[in-house]
Amino acid sequence: MPTIKNITDYLEAIAPLHLQESYDNAGLIVGDPNREVTGVLTSLDCLETTVAEAVERGCNLIVAHHPIVFKGLKRLNGANYVERTVIEAIKRDVAIYAIHTNLDNVFEGVNKRIAETLDLRKYKILKPKGEDPHIGSGMIGELPNAMEPPAFLAYLSERMQTQVVRHTEPLGEPISRVAVCGGSGGFTLGAAKRLGAQVLVTADYKYHEFFDADGEIMICDIGHYESEQFTTQLLAERLRNNFSTFAVLCTERITNPVRYYKHSSEKSS
Hints:
This protein is α/β, with parallel strands linked by helices. The chain is built from 10 helices and 11 strands.
């Protein structure tokens, strides 16, 4: 049977750890790399409920996009959800591996999956790092057919399975060129403008940051979870295509901490 190290070596071959951002904590967070793998559960986040699900479904390795530990832990006494998750994983002998901004920064990663979900054509890295055009942040591409802004917003909501799209004023022209960046992608706005994108689809925009659209582009904030949710399937597909001696399962639990309230003025009859 393959070991956890066999799995992590493969993941680090497709998304090398040196490509993660300086603030990140990708890699093996909990677990013995030499332990044999009984099953893998892929997830966007790793919480206590994720560990419980892994145990229930016979998996002893969780491959999550977001690291459960971002900064050093001085104590492990269950004072918060991070400590409780780590404690539970150790008790249950479940390893946790995070593949985060390193997966964001490779061509075959998070942003390509968003581009494919929106059916973009001729897509390329939005903001390359250095000289390699296949390494960097975001993607930019063309829609199969230009859409009027209301139609595009409906299409975006349906394709990305999001209940809410927070956006700036449309440019008043059909949309054909779209930039995307999963997660907190506001830092790609300048690149999106320079490359002629009419829309930037991303997440985590603050009120004053929306003004930076400045009539040059429409910013669409679809939510952090919503922008990266298909990463779970991406990871499962890559692992299934390369390992066949154990089950690779996608989480069945929604870890999004954000809830949406929609007010309805309709009166019941």
